[in-house]
Batch of 4 targets.
Target 1
Amino acid sequence: MRKVIVALFCLLLAGAAPALADEAHHRQLAMELMELHHAQQMVEQAAEQLKGRLLSRFAELSATAPDPGAVKQGRDQAAALIEQEFAWDNLKADYVDMYVSFFTEEELQAILDFTKSPAGRKLQDVTPALLMKSQAIGQQHSKKVIPEVSKIIEGLTPDKKE
């Protein structure tokens, strides 16, 4: 009986090995794609922006606080918490999980192949400019529509001349 259990266990392990290898390769492809798309740098930039916004509140506090030293200490603690939570080593596995959940191994390989192609490299090079121009287009159209929408809202708002 013991030999049968050991044999079954070995068969199970042998069957699981390719699945584990596939999962490791899938995750490796996701990491490679993230590296090509500079995910770490983008996440670090976003974290710095968040940190700046959150820590700006401490600057407001220090102007009126009775104990500016306590505010500085609180700011330093908050900065350390933000840096720790948003450190790439803490986030990387979550990002790999995200890519693996959205893309099959074959899709990741196809995306990698495209990203490494001349057209893929060009897309990656011009994407920041495309994003900036698209934001400018959106702002331009917003400037046209916001006053009109404001007029519509004003027309629906009862006068408050009580």
Note: The chain has one domain: 8-124.
Target 2
Amino acid sequence: MRVEVFPTTEELGQEQQIPWQDPARDARFVDLRENPAAIETIEPVRESRALAGFLIAINSADSLFLTARARTWLEKRPAGEDACAFAGQITFAFADTQANFDRQAFTLLFEKLRALLAATETSPALRVRLALHPCRYGGQAGRGFCASVLVEAHGESEGQARLRWTLGLAHVQQALLFSSRMLRQERRQSI
């Protein structure tokens, strides 16, 4: 599994907003921590039970995080070893809104995630990219941050690419939940 962290410099990803709404696509932010049953309103979840499981776990009380967006897509290429690529991107933030204004909190999280994911032995046809974004939070003054994780898998067929993606997503889920536990312990010890 290749793990990339963006930015490696001061460059940030595209600005995000939480909560958000897109009337053109009839899509909006769904707070799964407050209303887990609303998961069925998220379009990509209808196509991927693995994504549904990921979102439920990351928005659970065991996690320090909340998810803001999720999307998946399939790319088909000329026949060959990597004829299909299946990818998904999830935008997430800390459930404690104040932590989202602390860039160092995201830096520490990315360090933990990179170490955990890089130690995972998976197919070289799998790539994970972590990105930091500037983010505006409704009702909050100033600009904070949020993160996104892109999981991309290649395969000879759509089925193979989706299976590899599902396995990669499970690794990311475990890394996020483990990081959440580690960060929670570190906070307790510093008090």
Note: The helical segments are 49-58, 103-118, 158-190.
Target 3
Amino acid sequence: MFVGHYGPAFAAKAISKTIPLWLLFIAVQWMDVIWSILVALGIEKLRIVPGFTESNPMDLYYMPYTHGLIGALILSVIFGLIAQAALRGTWREIFLVVACSVFSHWLLDLVVHVPDLPLIGNSMKVGFGLWRHVRIALPVEIATLVAGAWIYAHYAPSKTARGDMWLWAYVVLMSVILIYATFWGAPTTPMGEARMAILMYAVFAAIAWLVDRARGTADVKWRTATN
């Protein structure tokens, strides 16, 4: 899953308005951010196999540190602690929301991945394999994104006249990028995929910051050295 991961980020912003949307955008892709770095370093591995699934050609055969169940839980706790240290708020509204946002990545991957998510080490791999059926996987991913954006729009209402226009324009943009990536933008090398992933996550988070500001919902309280 790609842009579908941002559905939980939008929903989490509605749950805890003290967390910036851009940080939640990073949280839901945190596993893939670390994965991209480890792929670039040659620690985790993938193969590009044309036709591997209908949705993408990536054979993700070795990623125990980022997409294994234990690794995903550890990464969730780490990013939750980072957010708790940086933001003012209770553990329930900061750590728990951010950690759950990170772990939502593994749960959504479980739905779409073929069995390549290891439970222990690099073994006991699971995955429901929705990527094998692009006519199902693509609408499900867009629906996940739209559902999260609707929750954000409804429960964290815009304080500006055109704020929701920014939000839904962004949702449309992400959906178009997903369609392009699915049918025409397949990666050709593991390193190319890692570099493009990092770039896209940074760009998406930056645009999320703009959307949050445009809607007047970026009222975030950071910790400082004096409080």
Note: The mean pLDDT is 95.
Target 4
Amino acid sequence: MNQLILASTSPYKKMLLERLGLEFTCRNPEVDETPLVGESPKDLALRLAEQKATAVASQIPGAWVIGADQVEELDGQILGKPGNHQRAVEQLKTQSGRSMHFHCGICLAQYSIDEGEIIKQVRLNTTEVQFRHLNSQQIERYLLADKPYDCAGSFKGEALGISLFSAVYSNDPSSLIGLPLIDLCTMLGDWGLEVP
């Protein structure tokens, strides 16, 4: 198999990809993640996944490059990573008792030396999360325990954040953490890269 690269410095995506037992390296795609004017949450997730994968693929011909990005949606609006405690409190209060959608775009790309261009597959995976009704004490306890300030939605679904939910609806549970492994395995298989 050609070199496999994860176009991300996210420890969460790295942890997920390690589950597949594949050898890979990580590389920062250095992509501006600012939404475009009028861009929908789904379109943003797809565009960023594709830009991340193709940015790295164009630098390393022949390598298979995985790009992924997750965007949280509430009532058609994009909710970003909180960045600090106060914004995380505000996000969790807003999400309390409500359903949110997490759109995860994934792209597998390769600069084909034979064809002289980038070939790619792009997919979107959406997870619906129903939050429990949360009071201020629960929110504070949770944030102090997990410190999810670099996570969309102000929670870590792979850790204590699961306690904030009453239900999760998804066809790929890894998508909620930021890298849909079921989709990735299918995409790899489509190009003859079998896992396991």
Note: Residues 111 and 118 are 4 Å apart (CA to CA).
